[in-house]
Amino acid sequence: MVIIRLARSGAKKNPYYFITVADERRPRDGAFIERLGFFNPMARGQEERLRLDLDKLNEWISKGAQVSDRVKALVKESKLTPEELEAKIAAKKARAEAKKAAIAEKLAKEAEEKAEQEAPAEEEAPAEEVAPAEEEAPAEEEAPAEEEATAEDDSSEDEKK
Fold it and tell me: Are 19 and 39 in contact (CB under 8 A)?
């Protein structure tokens, strides 16, 4: 069976694809029947990202050639106007940034929860020690004050007599 698919070219981590018509039994980058265009996913600025001969593509489809999923998406993209294409790319970038922001927010929230779980465990022990000391200290202060007050009362009573 004849299939219209991408054949990878280019350097390591810098892909470049040719849109080819080939026998499906052939290797991806092997022999092909005809080249219909190219796709450069790394294109920047004014570089051409996609070129596709739609007339030849339709001719091969009419002869019974099957189209891969990725090539179908590229054909659909090639039919868009430049403005629509820019809007589509901008929307894709916005979704990616929103997803990154959501992940960063989730990680920050998890870090705060983890810090809160660790911090109370450390703070609870000293808080328990401080509370009994505070209770004892006022009790000691009150006792001498009462003794002094009673001592003063006794002395004042002695003076009156």
Answer: yes
Rounded CA separation 161/155 (Å): 10
pLDDT in the model for residue 55: 93
CA distance 156 to 152: 6
Nearest to 33 by CA among 10, 73, 63, 70: 63
pLDDT tops 90 at residue 142 = no
> Can you give the pLDDT at residue 116?
84
Q: In this structure, is the dihedral angle defined by the CA atoms of residues 21, 27, 29 and 33, taken in order, positive or negative?
A: negative
pTM over 0.85: no
Rounded to a whole number of angstroms, the distance between the first and last alpha carbons of the chain is 128
Helix intervals (H) in the chain: 54-62, 69-78, 82-160
